[in-house]
Specification:
The chain is α+β, with helices and mostly antiparallel strands. The protein folds into 2 domains: 96 residues; 106 residues, 3-layer Sandwich (Rieske Iron-sulfur Protein), CATH 2.102.10.10. 20% of the residues lie in helices and 35% in strands. The chain has 4 helices and 14 strands. The chain has a 6-stranded antiparallel beta sheet, with helices on one face. Strands 2-3-1-4 form a 4-stranded antiparallel beta sheet, sandwiched between helices. It has a 4-stranded antiparallel beta sheet with strand order 9-10-11-12, with no helix packed on it. Strand 10 and strand 11 form a beta hairpin. The chain is globular and about 55 Å long.
């Protein structure tokens, strides 16, 4: 069966996205949730004919994963999900939602922002946010918080945090970065942009690094 990618509206939170995932699982439809530029997407491995899209889906595509390819099925679908979400942003489909979360916006008067409570981010393990127009992620690991741009320094693809192996992976050219943003492998010519992180009153605050 073909696969489907459902890009969700930016206003859809993780709880609602997981509920949609659960509804698919209840119907024995294999799917997974992915963080993509602008929010979340559902990757449906084997979509039955006539599968109805929920209203939260702002863009979708049905694709046949090529056989005999050197890339894995999962890698192909993840890369396609990122591309589809970028297309949705470029077309304006999800632009209204991109700036709909006040805690995740940087005002012109400051170079720092509150991205959430310590307990929330530690429970989730990571959280994506936008610093101005820059897509970013904050990761809780090793008793510390790390904040990085998720724009790959190679060709601008969006990297994803991989908790199991504790690195950020680019779906486009197999590049990877460590928690400091340094290149572990692949073609990127420089590290990811890293941000300073502070904890204030049980809130995680990200700020731009200053140079001497």
């Amino acid at each position: 069966m073909p696969s489907q990618i459902w890009v969700l509206d930016r206003s859809v939170g993780r709880e609602r996205a997981e509920a949609l995932l659960g509804s698919l699982a209840a119907r024995e439809i294999p799917a997974s949730l992915r963080e993509v530029p602008g929010g979340l997407a559902l990757v449906i491995d084997d979509a039955p004919a006539g599968l109805e899209r929920p209203p939260e889906v702002v863009r979708s595509s049905t694709i046949e994963v090529p056989t005999g390819s050197q890339v894995t099925r999962r890698h192909f679908l993840d890369t396609f999900a990122v591309s589809l979400s970028v297309a949705a942003i470029a077309s304006g489909t999800v632009l209204a939602g991109l700036y709909a979360s006040p805690p995740h916006e940087r005002t012109p008067e400051t170079d720092e922002m509150d991205v959430g409570s310590v307990s929330e981010i530690e429970a989730q393990g990571s959280r994506v946010f936008r610093f101005g127009r820059e897509p970013c992620v904050v990761v809780a690991a090793g008793g510390r918080f790390h904040a990085l741009s998720t724009v790959c320094s190679h060709l601008g693809c969006i990297v994803q945090w991989v908790p199991r192996s504790q690195h950020l992976a680019c779906p486009c050219h197999r590049a990877s970065f460590d928690l400091e943003g340094n290149v572990r492998e692949g073609p990127p010519p420089r590290p990811l942009t890293a941000y300073a992180v502070a904890v204030r009153n049980d809130r995680v605050v990200v700020r731009r690094r200053t140079t001497a």
